[in-house]
Structure formats: structure tokens, C-alpha cells
Hints:
Blueprint: E1 3-7, H1 12-23, E2 27-32, H2 40-50, E3 62-66, H3 78-84, E4 89-93, H4 105-126, E5 132-138, E6 148-149, H5 165-184, E7 188-193, E8 195-197, H6 211-224, E9 228-232, E10 239-240, E11 242-244, H7 245-257, E12 264-267, E13 273-274, H8 275-285, E14 288-292, H9 303-311, E15 324-325, H10 328-333, H11 343-365
Parallel strand pairs: 1-2, 1-4, 2-3, 4-5, 5-7, 6-15, 7-12, 8-11, 9-14
Antiparallel strand pairs: 10-13
Helix pairs in contact: 1-7, 4-5, 6-11, 8-11
Amino acid sequence: xxxxxxxxxxxxxxxxxxxxxxxxxxxxxxxxxxxxxxxxxxxxxxxxxxxxxxxxxxxxxxxxxxxxxxxxxxxxxxxxxxxxxxxxxxxxxxxxxxxxxxxxxxxxxxxxxxxxxxxxxxxxxxxxxxxxxxxxxxxxxxxxxxxxxxxxxxxxxxxxxxxxxxxxxxxxxxxxxxxxxxxxxxxxxxxxxxxxxxxxxxxxxxxxxxxxxxxxxxxxxxxxxxxxxxxxxxxxxxxxxxxxxxxxxxxxxxxxxxxxxxxxxxxxxxxxxxxxxxxxxxxxxxxxxxxxxxxxxxxxxxxxxxxxxxxxxxxxxxxxxxxxxxxxxxxxxxxxxxxxxxxxxxxxxxxxxxxxxxxxxxxxxx
Length: 366
């Protein structure tokens, strides 16, 4: 059975992917950035404990290594890398900076471009000709694209074509992979994920990005000022493309098992969730009345509305989107049935997430 090597292995999606790989007896090599206070093994085990209801015993088919994304050979001895990459290997590059603003531009591009370049360098140096390189990108590398975003490469573009530097850096990285494929024969694949959320069946949600960060801020406001009416600058008719973690893992497991894959696949939800539904769900779950107002100007906001607006510095970029993603290549290559996103699933996730947030606050208060 082939070996699976994953960098950024302790991240949310990567650790859930690893969990299924281990259950299906794949040999997994987890590359994790550790430090003196939190070694790689500790960070990886914590991630696995978090997704296994507080219990995890490291199995024999999991090996954990400390690595540094930007160092030569990841800071790992050459003889170790030669052993790890020996035979048929699928390598998944998850490592990324999730920052987005101008202040973090250098860090974003260092991690999301230089880090990818170094990752390809290590892979090309040590992997055999049958091994494959998977780059975990984002469906939002589409930027401010208007139309159907296809499963193909798009040329690099100015920052004005994107909502933030994170999106732009991922587009650059995709083209870097394309360059190595064209010039060096790299067996590369681009997997574009949309906003990964909780489990569609159980509702268990631990990620706090996007709508969940917004939900937590609204919960905090509602706790301090119950039953208040608050206007939010959100287009209620726009949508969020939320893909459940269980769906993502099902797709990723298929990429391991299917040999002939398209170069690019858009791993996105087929059915988006409207902002109107998300706001209604929050109003049903919390003692607050949220009123969407697309043209709400900061000068018209009261102090509470300004606080919410400031907290939406990232989320607000996506409150007016109705993005369309082509999935024909994904559907042709990965035929196993997956769980689709629904309003019921979104409600379960919000209910679980807000419940866990309340539990944490109660513990702190005690």
C-alpha cells in the first residue's frame, strides 16, 4: 500500500483526512511544525484528540516528524527523507498562511509561495517517478471572477482582481505548480476547497472561520445586550459556499485511491447557503434581531453595529458573493456518494458551535 505524506498535518482538514487514512490502514507520515514548548508530536496528537472525542492512541501506521517549511530539506536529514519518499508516495501540501491583509502580505507570500516552492523542491529531489504531488488550494483563488469558475488554470493577476492577498497568493501558487508540471514533468494536482465547515450529519463544528467567527461575535453581543435589534451590512440574497468536513474527507480519500485524476478539481458544495438563512438561524438561536442592510454606511451605525462591522473585516468581503464553480471534472473522477450541504446541516453546525462557545464561557466564569 502506498505511503501518504502530509505537511501542515495538524490543521483541521489535514488531521481529519489523516484520521480516515489511519482507519483504513494507510501508512501516514505527518510533517508538523513544532517548537520547544509544543513539539511536533504533541501538536499532532492534540489535533487527533480534538477530532476523536478526547481520546487518541498513536497507531503504528502514523509517523510524526518536526519540519520547517522554508528550510532546506525541511530541516530533516537526507537519509530520513530518502527513506520516507521511497516507493510510491502521495504527497499532500496543506501548509498555508490563512492571513489576508496588507500588513501580513510578506508573510502570506513567503508561506504560500516560497513554502510551496520549497515543498516542490523537496518532493522532486526525493520522490520516485510514480509519486504524486497534491496542492491544497482554495476555490476562492477565483478572486472577483464573474461567471463559472472552471477547473483549469487561470493566469496570475493584480491584487485588484482579488478580495485579499490570501486569494492572490493561492492563484500564484497554482501557477507555480503549473510551471513545474510544464517544465519538469511534476505529477501535480490542484484541489480547490471552498469554506470547510463542520460535519453534515452530526453538526460537530470546531472551525471558527467565516460565518462561525461572525456567529461567535453575534453571540457575545447578544449575551451582553439581549433582544437588541442590530443592523448588519450583509446582502441577504447572497450566498456562502460551505462544504462539510465529512464531504471533503470523502473526496480526499478518493484521490488516494483513484489513479487517473484531473489536474484541477473544484471541491465545493453543490448547494450554497443564503445569508438570509444564516441570519435567521442566528436570530432563532440567540436573543437578538439581526436586520440585513446592504447600503448601511458606517456613519449611520450605532456603537454596537460598528463593533460588529469592525469584527467583519474579513467576513464582509464574502457577504455579497454568489460564486459559481464548475465541478464536472470532480464529478467524473470521484464517483463515491458524498453528503451535500443543506440548511438543516448548517443549522445543526451553528447550534453545536454556539453551544460549545457557551460551554467555554461558563467554564471560564467558574
